[in-house]
Amino acid sequence: MVLGSHSGRIRALIDPSGRKVKSAGPSDPVEILGLSGVPSAGDVLVAVSDERKARQIAQMRLEREKAKVKTAERITLEGLHRQIESGEIKELRLVLKADVQGSVEALTESLERLSTEEVKLKVIHASVGAINESDVMLASASNAIVIGFNVKAEPKAASQAQANGVDVRYYNVIYEVINDVRAALAGLLAPEIRETTLGRAQVRQIFVISKLGPIAGSLVQEGKIVRNAKVRVRRGDTIVGEGTVTSLKRFKDDVREVASGLECGIGVDAVKGIQPGDILEVYATEEVARTL
User: Does domain 80-186 have CATH number 3.40.50.1000?
Assistant: First the structure.
């Protein structure tokens, strides 16, 4: 027989009362002994002519499952943001193993609910039992992280994971799984750019200083003007350009900042045609990590 990516010969059929039976018909619940591993809920059992053919079919299914996703650089929860921020694809893949089917289903549902349009989470395989070599092979081929809930990796699987750089995580509390994965996914979100207005100045006249070029003689109306800060030029309700405060003078002196109520000379790069009456709005930006 073949069941999912597992195969075997039926050694025994056990009914709900614990008795061995010789056969089971439609809708008869039975336990089957003889499989090479623990299948997933929903897998369909298929009878084949011999055990060798069953093993071949099971192996083909496993290879097909691994081929669904391409090989990529090894990924870890800690390094997830750094490894993916340079690419277009933002997806976290997981191989999930747990002690009982109820935990598998609860974790899969809870984890997949963390997906958004911007950041995707995909459980590529979820089943009951210890983490085995097949799980590690799949994770390695698909660039996935292995989550073990109330289960550990078999010795050979643990060695294989270490050799191939596969990140294997162990948990026994569901909310800890969710919290760790949520934090990793949040790292994939593009950071929010938060802007703070530093000050505004009105341009009174334009004059030229050798080596510096056009300088906007201005009166600081509020806040302060800071050298090297970002600046946008407003003309009425229109933004006519954006640049950087490349020079800042108070009379003949170079200064770092000029406070409200004082006059100064402001040099702005990347913006041409600044006119008297324009408003120079100086601001700073910072990247703020977003959360799911």
Answer: no
* Chain center to CA of 195: 24
Phi, psi (5° rounding) for residue 102?
A: -60, -40
pLDDT digits (tens, 9 = 90+) for 171-210: 999 999 998 888 777 766 667 788 999 999 999 999 988 8
Question: Residue 210 corresponds to which tokens in the numbers above?
Answer: 């050798």
CA–CA gap between residue 232 and residue 222 (Å, rounded)? 15
d(CA 228, CA 35): 69
CATH H-level superfamily of 192-288: Translation factors (2.40.30.10)
CATH fold of 2-67 reads Elongation Factor Tu (Ef-tu); domain 3 (2.40.30)
For residues 283 and 47, give the distance between their C-alpha atoms in angstroms, rounded to a whole number.
71
On the question of a common fold for 80-186 and 192-288, the answer reads no
| Chain position carrying tokens 């800890």 | 176
DSSP state letters, 92-127 = EEEEEEESSHHHHHHHHHHHHTT--SSSEEEEEEEE
Q: What is the pLDDT of residues 24-43, one digit of tens each?
A: 888 889 999 988 887 877 78
Distance, in Å, from the CA atom of 74 to the CA atom of 141, rounded to the nearest integer, reads 9
Domain residues of the chain, as ranges? 2-67, 80-186, 192-288
**Cα–chain center distance at 142:** 15
Which two three-digit tokens encode residue 104? 């598998």
Report helix, strand or coil for 212: coil
Cβ atoms within 10 Å of 1's Cβ, excluding its own: 18
Q: Which residue matches tokens 């499952």?
A: 65
Computed over every residue of the chain, the mean pLDDT equals 86
